[in-house]
C-alpha cells in the first residue's frame, strides 16, 4: 500500500472515538432500525445536504404539478408558487387526446418494449458462445461488440439516416426499434458475458452427460440462472429506450409516430410561440409519473444493474 | 462430441446480433468516415473532395467555438458534479435515517427523459414565469435575477447545471459502491487511532478511491463531450453561439444546411479529440495501482 493511504494517528482530540464495526453488508430493505448509527453532530450536515437535494427535486415536481392544475391566464398572471385555484384535471385529458400525448405514449410503449425485448434476447444468445465456448476469433467478436461502448454512437447519424432511407425504414416505428435494439446490444452483451462467466463450468458437462444438446442446455439451464442479469439489462435498456431523444429526432418526422420525448419537445416548441403552457405541463406529468412509479418499485434492481455494468465484468 | 455440438451453435447464436450491429452500427460507422471525404448536394448526389472537409473544419470558427464550449461544458459541469456527488455518496454511506428515501430522491431524475427535464428547467429558468427570478426577488436579491438562458455569460453554466442535476444519481450510485467496498479494517484502524470522520474521509477514503475517480472522470468527459438533448432543447446553441456544442452544430449543418460530408468530418474530428483527451486524462491521473 502506498504511503498516502497509511493511517496516521491523530493526536487524540476532544471526544473519544467511536464504536465497533459499523460496516454493513448487503443493502436496501434488510436493515433494521436498531442497526443504525447513533446520531452524531456531523449527521446534521448530512441531513442538511440531503434535505436540500430532496427539496430541490420534490420542489421542481411540485411546481410542475401545480402549473398543470392552473389555467393559462393564471399561469401568466400569478406568482409562480401561488397554488392553483382548482383541480383542473381537464388539462390532463386535453394533453392526452388533443395534444396527442396519448399517442406519443403508445408509440413510446411499442418502440421501447419491442426494442428492449429484441436487444436483450439477441444479446443473451450472442453472449453465450462468447462467454462459455472457446473458439478462434471470440476475442475479436467481443471487441467488435465493445466498440459500440466506446465510439460515441451519435457520430454515425448521417449514414444511419441515409441507410434507413434506403431500407424504407425512415420515419417508421420498426426502424426506430431496430436502431434502439442495436444500440442496447454492446452494453447488454458486456454485462451478460460478465454474468455468464461466473457460472461454474460443470453445468454444461453435466447437461451433456444427461444427453441435453447445447441449445437445450442454454435454454433450460443457463438462461434460468441468468435471471438477475437479464432483469438488470432489461430495465436499463428499457429506461434508455424510453428516454432516448436524439435518434427519434433524426429518424421520425410524422407526429403520429413520435415517441414521448420527441412529442413533448414539439409541444414545447409550440408552447414557446403559442399560449398553451398548462397542457405541456400536464403532458410532462403524464410522462414522468409512470416512470417514477416503476422506478420506486424497482429501485434496487436499477441501481444494482448500473453498478454491475460499470464496475464489474 | 460435446465440444463439436457446442461449436455448431456458435454461428447461429451470434449471427442475429452481429447482423443488427453490422447494419445499424458498423456499416454507418465506416460510412461516416467515407462520407467525411465527400461533398453532398441538396439533391443527394455527392462527389469525393479528399481532405477538403477536414481542412475546412480546422479553420471553421463555428467548429472551434463548439469545441471550446464542449470543453467548457465538461469542465464547468465536472466542477459542479464531482464535489457534490462525492459528498452525497459519502453521506449516504453513513447509515442515516431515511437512507432509502434519500437514495430515491437523488436517483429519481436519472430515470426521467432528458427531454422532460430540459423542458422543465427551461421554464424554471424563465425570467418572469419561472421559479428562480421571482424567488430571488422575493428574497430581496432582485439584483441577481437575470435571463439565465438568454445571457451569453450564464447560459452555458445554466445548461451544465441541469445536466448535472439530471445525471448526478448515476455518479452517486457508482461512488457509493466504491465507498462500500473500502476495507472495513483499514477504516476501523483509523478510528481506533482517533481519526475523526473528516480526517478519515480526506486521508483514507479519498486516496483509496483514486482509481474509481479516474474511471469516472474519463466517463464524464466522454459523456459530456457528446451532450446534445439539453443544449438542443434549452437553448438550441444560442444566445450568440455561447452554448453551441459539436452535437448541435453537426445537427444543424447536416439537416439545415444539408452539408452531410462536412458534418461527418466534424463528427470524426470529435471522436479523435475525445480519444486523445480520454487517454491523456487517464495517464495524468494514473498512479500505482492500489491493492486492497
Give an overview of the whole structure.
- The complex is a heterodimer of chains A (313) and B (292).
- Chain A has a single domain (89-311), classed as MetI-like fold (Orthogonal Bundle).
- Helix content of chain A is 68%, strand content 0%.
- Chain A contains 13 helices and no strands.
- In chain A, helix 1 (43-68) runs antiparallel to helix 13 (277-311) and helix 4 (101-132) runs antiparallel to helix 12.
- Helix content of chain B is 71%, strand content 2%.
- Chain B is mostly helical.
- Chain B has a single domain, classed as MetI-like fold (Orthogonal Bundle), CATH 1.10.3720.
- Classes of the chains: A mainly alpha (313), B mainly alpha (292).
- At the A-B interface, helix 1, helix 4, helix 5, helix 6 and helix 7 of A face helix 1, helix 3, helix 4, helix 5 and helix 7 of B.
- Chain B: Keywords: Cell membrane, Membrane, Sugar transport, Transmembrane, Transmembrane helix, Transport.
In the predicted model, the low-confidence regions of chain B spanning at least 5 consecutive residues are none
Overall average residue pLDDT of chain A: 81
Regarding CATH, which class of chain B? Answer: Mainly Alpha
Q: Roughly what is the average pLDDT of chain B, rounded to an integer?
A: 87
- Per CATH, the superfamily of chain A is MetI-like
The percentage of residues in β strands of chain B lies in under 5%
Q: Identify the CATH class of chain A.
A: Mainly Alpha
Strand/helix succession of chain A: HHHHHHHHHHHHH
Write out the strand line-up for the largest beta sheet of chain B, numbering strands in chain order: 1-2
Distance linking N and C termini of chain A: 24 Å
Classify the secondary structure makeup of chain B into a structural class: mainly alpha
Can you name the CATH architecture of chain A? Orthogonal Bundle
Q: Share of helix among residues of chain A?
A: 55-70%
Radius of gyration of chain B (CA) equals 24 Å
Q: Give the CA-CA distance, first to last residue of chain B.
A: 43 Å
The 3D shape of chain B can be described as globular
Count every beta strand of chain B, where a strand is a DSSP E run of 2 or more residues. 2
The helix fraction of chain B, in percent, is over 70%
Order of helices and strands of chain B: HEEHHHHHHHHHHHH
Strand content of chain A: under 5%
Amino acid at each position: 500500500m502506498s504511503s498516502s493511504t497509511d493511517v496516521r494517528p491523530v493526536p487524540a482530540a476532544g471526544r473519544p472515538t467511536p464504536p465497533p464495526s459499523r460496516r454493513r453488508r448487503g443493502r436496501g430493505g434488510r436493515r433494521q432500525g436498531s442497526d443504525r448509527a447513533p446520531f452524531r453532530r456531523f449527521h446534521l450536515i448530512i441531513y442538511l445536504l440531503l434535505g436540500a437535494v430532496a427539496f430541490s427535486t420534490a420542489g421542481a415536481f411540485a411546481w410542475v404539478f401545480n402549473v398543470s392544475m392552473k389555467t393559462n391566464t393564471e399561469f401568466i398572471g400569478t406568482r409562480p408558487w401561488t397554488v392553483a385555484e382548482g383541480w383542473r384535471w381537464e388539462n390532463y385529458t386535453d394533453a392526452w387526446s388533443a395534444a396527442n400525448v396519448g399517442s406519443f405514449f403508445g408509440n413510446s410503449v411499442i418502440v421501447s418494449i419491442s426494442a428492449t425485448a429484441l436487444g436483450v434476447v439477441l444479446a443473451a444468445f450472442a453472449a453465450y458462445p462468447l462467454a462459455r465456448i472457446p473458439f478462434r476469433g471470440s476475442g475479436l467478436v467481443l471487441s467488435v461488440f465493445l466498440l459500440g461502448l466506446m465510439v460515441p454512437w451519435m457520430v454515425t447519424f448521417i449514414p444511419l439516416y441515409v441507410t434507413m432511407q434506403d431500407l424504407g425504414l425512415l420515419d417508421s416505428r420498426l426502424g426506430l426499434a431496430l436502431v434502439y435494439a442495436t444500440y442496447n446490444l454492446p452494453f447488454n452483451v458486456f454485462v451478460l458475458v460478465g454474468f455468464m462467466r461466473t457460472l461454474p463450468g460443470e453445468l454444461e458437462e453435466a447437461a451433456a452427460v444427461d444427453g441435453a444438446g447445447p441449445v437445450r442446455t442454454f435454454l433450460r439451464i443457463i438462461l434460468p440462472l441468468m435471471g438477475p442479469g437479464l432483469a438488470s439489462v432489461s430495465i436499463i435498456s428499457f429506461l434508455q429506450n424510453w428516454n432516448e431523444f436524439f435518434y427519434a429526432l433524426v429518424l421520425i418526422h410524422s407526429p403520429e409516430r413520435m415517441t414521448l420525448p420527441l412529442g413533448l419537445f414539439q409541444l414545447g416548441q409550440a408552447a414557446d410561440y403559442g399560449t398553451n403552457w398548462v397542457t405541456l405541463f400536464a403532458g410532462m406529468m403524464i410522462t414522468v409519473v409512470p416512470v417514477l412509479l416503476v422506478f420506486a418499485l424497482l429501485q434496487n434492481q436499477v441501481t444494482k444493474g448500473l453498478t454491475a455494468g460499470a464496475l464489474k465484468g | 462430441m460435446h465440444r463439436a455440438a457446442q461449436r455448431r451453435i456458435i454461428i447461429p447464436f451470434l449471427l442475429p446480433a452481429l447482423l443488427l450491429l453490422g447494419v445499424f452500427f458498423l456499416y454507418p460507422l465506416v460510412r461516416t468516415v467515407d462520407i467525411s471525404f465527400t461533398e453532398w448536394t441538396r439533391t443527394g448526389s455527392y462527389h469525393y473532395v479528399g481532405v477538403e472537409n477536414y481542412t475546412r473544419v480546422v479553420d471553421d470558427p463555428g467548429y472551434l467555438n463548439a469545441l471550446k464550449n464542449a470543453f467548457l461544458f465538461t469542465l464547468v459541469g465536472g466542477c459542479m458534479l464531482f464535489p457534490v456527488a462525492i459528498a452525497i455518496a459519502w453521506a449516504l454511506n453513513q447509515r442515516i435515517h431515511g437512507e432509502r428515501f434519500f437514495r430515491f430522491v437523488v436517483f429519481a431524475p436519472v430515470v426521467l427523459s432528458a427531454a422532460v427535464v430540459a423542458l422543465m428547467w427551461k421554464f424554471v429558468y424563465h425570467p418572469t414565469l419561472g421559479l428562480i427570478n421571482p424567488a430571488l426577488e422575493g428574497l430581496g436579491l432582485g439584483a441577481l435575477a437575470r435571463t439565465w438562458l438568454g445571457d451569453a455569460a450564464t447560459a452555458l453554466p445554466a445548461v451544465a447545471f441541469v445536466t448535472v442535476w439530471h445525471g448526478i444519481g448515476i455518479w452517486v450510485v457508482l461512488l457509493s459502491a466504491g465507498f462500500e467496498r473500502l476495507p472495513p479494517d483499514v477504516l476501523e484502524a483509523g478510528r481506533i487511532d482517533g481519526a475523526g470522520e473528516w480526517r478519515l474521509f480526506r486521508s483514507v477514503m479519498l486516496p483509496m478511491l483514486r482509481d474509481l475517480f479516474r474511471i469516472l472522470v474519463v466517463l464524464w468527459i466522454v459523456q459530456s463531450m457528446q451532450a446534445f438533448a439539453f443544449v438542443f432543447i434549452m437553448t438550441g446553441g444560442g444566445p450568440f453561439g455561447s452554448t453551441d456544442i459539436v452535437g448541435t452544430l453537426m445537427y444543424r449543418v447536416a439537416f439545415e444546411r444539408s452539408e452531410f460530408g462536412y458534418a461527418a468530418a466534424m463528427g470524426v474530428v470529435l471522436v479523435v479529440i475525445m480519444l486523445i483527451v480520454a487517454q491523456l486524462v487517464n495517464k495524468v491521473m494514473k498512479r500505482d495501482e492500489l491493492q486492497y
